[in-house]
Amino acid sequence: MARNYGFLICILIMAMDITAGILGIEAEIAENKVKHLRMWIFECRNPSFKAFKLGLAAAVLFGLAHVIGNLLGGCVCIWTKEDLNRATANKQLAVVSLIFSWIVLAIGFSMLIIGTLSNSKSRKTCGISHHRLFSIGGILCFIHGLFTVAYYVSATAAAREDRTNRPRTTA
Prior knowledge:
- The chain is mostly helical.
- It contains five helices and three strands; from the N terminus they run αββαααβα.
- The protein has a three-stranded antiparallel β-sheet with strand order 1-2-3, with no helix packed on it.
- The longest helix has 33 residues, at 133-165.
């Protein structure tokens, strides 16, 4: 008696990515509330511990959503051009969604981590301004949720197709 938990997994992934996105945007708001002095592209500002905590929580949730989606989605591999031509639409969509989810993860996670590290210091820092790292990272969390859910749904559908199309041998 197998149960289909796919809908709950999709909701979990989206909830984690949406929460990570909101935390990233909240970290940007907290970072903008600290005192800073700006001249051209250079800026001196105090770090925000609240932005640090929110950014770290956003990065952890973002990474966890990606791990859950990829582990539970399974492995969908296309090795050659011939495999690509023979693959079903679900398998092709799974591969494309997987590639885009990894690209969005790399960019968004990097932005959240850079923003978090810039707020981890206990002293005032001066340098080139790094505005909107948390906001862009938070927005990429939302986009990542869409790609990861698309990957999970298409990967499980492709696996189901492979199981039903596999020739059965009688022993």
